[in-house]
């Protein structure tokens, strides 16, 4: 029985390539296809090379590589120029569709990037939101005036919830540890200080306050879940029942200024009150009240676009 004649070019093109091998190994890359389209349009390999910004030897090498990959001759070269073979003309038609589809893909991807870059959703714990973020956002606006920024201020637990729910692009926390499911980088450092109104008995102490006495004293505190509360609780090994429990740094500070009782606040938050003697600091022995300030984001999703730029601004000023 006589075997039917097969297409030799097809045999060569498929040689050594099992049908299930990756498509990327069997199809020329976009750069090669764009070069072939330029040769077809200009009728010159040298002109196509100049248009694409490569040397003529590099263009010749790329065409030969594509011919070997496909197993057919694509371009006839002569002193008068370059013309497509019949197979080359057919491949050029297919290449045009692929390049047009790639251009549509690129335009769609750019639209997605533009949409991403048009907004930035930030979630930050209260101290950072009130005393650091405003300056960072002003600097970001100078670089990206068309980016609309929304800010959600809450405690560290709330920041983690918003990030994990996809409701924020970048977060900032000030607790002892990184919430589960988030990656982080340290962007600065902070220190907690014990403060009271000048009339409080602690304001007249000549010796530092013992950590045990601080732990046993009802204080004006932030709510559970706040970074400030976490650091203080860990440093003292537990806290007495709060004198007052409030949900913002500003509220805690105002209560302390009013003379309601002692409070523990970030030194970032009380600079003006200390300089005006509306509050005074009370030294403490035996308690480590330092903490790291961190930028956080969902694990595996490194900040991009305006979120990445904001992150770079916070780190550029890190002490």
UniProtKB/TrEMBL annotation:
Family that this chain belongs to: Belongs to the LysR transcriptional regulatory family.
Composition-biased stretches (Basic and acidic residues): 1-11
Domain of life according to the entry: Bacteria
Gene3D superfamilies in the record: Periplasmic binding protein-like II, Winged helix-like DNA-binding domain superfamily/Winged helix DNA-binding domain
Domain HTH lysR-type: 28-85
Pfam families: HTH_1, LysR_substrate
Keyword vocabulary terms for this entry: DNA-binding, Transcription, Transcription regulation
PROSITE patterns referenced in this protein's UniProt entry, alphabetically: HTH_LYSR (PS50931)
Residues covered by region (Disordered): 1-25
Biological classification of the source: Bacteria, Bacillati, Actinomycetota, Actinomycetes, Kitasatosporales
Protein name: LysR family transcriptional regulator
């Amino acid at each position: 029985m006589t075997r039917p004649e097969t297409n030799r070019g097809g045999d060569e093109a498929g040689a050594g390539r099992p049908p299930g091998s990756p498509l990327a190994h069997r199809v020329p890359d976009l750069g090669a296809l764009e070069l072939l389209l330029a040769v077809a349009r200009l009728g010159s390999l040298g002109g196509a090379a100049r248009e694409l910004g490569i040397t003529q030897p590099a263009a010749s090498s790329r065409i030969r590589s594509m011919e070997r990959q496909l197993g057919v001759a694509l371009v006839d070269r002569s002193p008068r120029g370059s013309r497509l073979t019949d197979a080359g003309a057919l491949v050029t038609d297919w290449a045009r569709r692929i390049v047009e589809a790639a251009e549509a893909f690129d335009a769609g991807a750019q639209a997605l990037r533009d949409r991403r870059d048009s907004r930035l959703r930030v979630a930050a714990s209260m101290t950072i939101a009130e005393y650091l973020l405003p300056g960072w956002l002003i600097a970001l606006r100078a670089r990206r005036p068309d980016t609309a920024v929304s800010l959600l201020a809450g405690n560290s637990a709330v920041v983690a919830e918003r990030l994990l729910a996809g409701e924020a692009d970048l977060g900032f926390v000030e607790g002892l540890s990184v919430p589960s499911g988030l990656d982080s980088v340290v962007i600065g450092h902070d220190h907690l200080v014990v403060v009271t109104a000048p009339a409080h008995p602690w304001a007249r102490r000549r010796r530092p306050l013992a950590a045990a006495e601080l732990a046993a004293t009802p204080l004006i505190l932030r709510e559970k879940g706040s970074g400030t509360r976490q650091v203080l609780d860990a440093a003292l090994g537990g806290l007495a029942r709060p004198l007052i429990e409030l949900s913002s740094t500003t509220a805690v500070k105002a209560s302390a200024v009013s003379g309601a009782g002692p409070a523990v606040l970030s030194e970032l938050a009380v600079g003006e009150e200390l300089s005006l003697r509306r509050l005074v600091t009370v030294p403490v022995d035996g308690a480590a009240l330092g903490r790291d300030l961190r930028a956080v984001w969902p694990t595996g999703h490194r900040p991009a676009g305006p979120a990445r730029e904001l992150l770079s601004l916070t780190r550029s000023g890190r002490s």
